[in-house]
Design goal:
The complex is a heterodimer.
Chain A lengths: L8 E4 L5 E6 L9 E5 L6 E4 L13 E6 L2 E6 L8 E9 L2 E4 L3 E5 L1
Chain B lengths: L2 E5 L2 E3 L5 E8 L8 E6 L5 E7 L6 E3 L7 E6 L4 E6 L8 E9 L2 E5 L3 E5 L2
Parallel strand pairs in B: 2-11
Antiparallel strand pairs in B: 1-3, 3-8, 4-5, 4-9, 5-6, 7-8, 9-10, 9-11
The chains are: A mainly beta, B mainly beta.
Chain lengths: 106, 117
């Protein structure tokens, strides 16, 4: 089965740029989607199809995908961005999530 | 407004059964495939099951195959998850979610299932 690997944690100071990676075998050939989950809340889609943003998601959230790594980039990080982030792909009739990355805003 | 509301969670003994429900509103229910995704306490998201819009196709994670059954009643705008032979490792918050193309565009707030003796 397909495996997505994320770093357990990423820390960044307010106003800086956070980059959260999602590794998978030839993930660049797949569409990657990203979800934000704040404590006690349901996940929310923040990026779909590698780099598109749903309506209502700030432009500070962007994504890229190439080779074996997809990346969620959050520019000008704010305290409110502190959350868990999950990548997701579809593979062979199965939906796969990464293990999640906890973003800490210092 | 698109809304998904799960119900049916609770405490059950190992080996027991439980049926979860998800009531959908604000969109044409039978136009969309629907999913169940779970999250064990303090852990990440785990995809559980998927059903097509017409209910004709279903898919399951290996961890629940043969024990869980997903179904839907489009006349009632409702999604279900019948869970049998429950194990302690099935303890989790269970979310229903609406599929849009290859991602999950809308999630409910979840219903908690606890499997414990």
């Amino acid at each position: 089965s397909y495996v997505l690997t994320q770093p357990p944690s990423v820390s960044v100071a307010p106003g800086q740029t956070a980059r959260i990676t999602c590794g998978g075998n030839n993930i660049g050939s797949k569409s990657v989607h990203w979800y934000q989950q704040k404590p006690g809340q349901a996940p929310v889609l923040v990026v779909y199809d590698d780099s598109d943003r749903p309506s209502g998601i700030p432009e500070r959230f962007s994504g890229s995908n190439s080779g074996n790594t997809a990346t969620l980039t959050i520019s000008r990080v704010e305290a409110g961005d502190e959350a868990d982030y999950y990548c997701q792909v579809w593979d062979s009739s199965s939906w796969v999530f990464g293990g999640g990355t906890k973003l800490t805003v210092l | 407004e698109v809304q998904l509301v799960e119900s049916g969670g609770g405490v059950v003994q190992p080996g027991g059964s439980l049926r979860l429900s998800c009531a959908a509103s604000g969109f044409t229910f039978d136009d969309y495939a629907m999913h169940w995704v779970r999250q064990a306490p303090g852990k990440g998201l785990e995809w559980v099951s998927l059903i097509s819009g017409d209910g004709g196709s279903t898919y399951y994670a290996d961890s629940v195959k043969g024990r869980f059954t997903i179904s839907r009643d489009n006349s009632k705008n409702s999604l279900y998850l019948q869970m049998n032979s429950l194990r302690t490792e099935d303890t989790a918050l269970y979310y229903c979610a609406k599929q849009i193309q290859l991602w999950l565009g809308v999630w409910g707030q979840g219903t908690l299932v606890t499997v414990s003796s």
